[in-house]
Amino acid sequence: MKTIGERIKNLRKKKKLNQEDLRKIINVSQRTMSMIENNEADLSIKDIEKLSEFFDVSISYLIKGEEEEKTISTTEQEIIQLIRKDSDIKATLLNLLDTKKKAIYRIMITTQNHELMEA
Predict the structure, then answer these.
(1) 5 with 39: CB under 8 angstroms?
(2) Taking Cα atoms as reference points, which of 48, 44, 52 lies closest to residue 69?
C-alpha cells in the first residue's frame, strides 16, 4: 500500500509539477517538501486540506488511499447549491450552455463543409 507521501508525489507528477511548485502551494520549505514525500515529516490538517482541494481528491484518499478521487470538490458543491437556489442563475447558465453548444455545432458543420469542398 502506498504511503501519503507516495500519493502526494504521484498526484504532483500527474499535474506535471515539481516539488518547488507544490511547496509554494502548501507554504513549506524545500527540505520539508522532500521530507513529506519521503514520509519523514508529518502534514498538518490544514496542509492536507489544501492538498485535497488542489489535487481534487478526498482527504481520505490522501491519508488512507481509500478512494481515487472525490466525486465533487467543496467549491463545486457550493456552486451547485447556489444554482439550485437561484433560478435566474440556473436559467442564465442553461442559456449559455445552449449557446455554446450551438456555436460548436456551427463550427463542426462549417469544418465538415470545408472538408467536403476540398475533397
Answers:
(1) yes
(2) 52
In the structure grid, which three cell numbers stand for residue 15, read together?
499535474
Q: Are 12 and 54 in contact (CB under 8 A)?
A: no
Cβ atoms of 52 and 58 closer than 8 Å: yes
Q: What is the pLDDT of residues 4-33, one digit of tens each?
A: 999 999 999 999 999 999 999 888 899 999
Return the amino acid letter for 90.
Answer: K
Cell numbers standing for residue 55: 489535487
CA distance 33 to 40: 10
pLDDT tens for 86-95 read 989 889 988 9
Cα 118 to chain center, whole Å? 41
Burial of residue 68, with CB atoms counted within 10 A of its CB: 0-12 exposed, 13-18 middle, 19 or more buried: exposed
Dist. CA 88–CA 100, nearest whole Å = 18
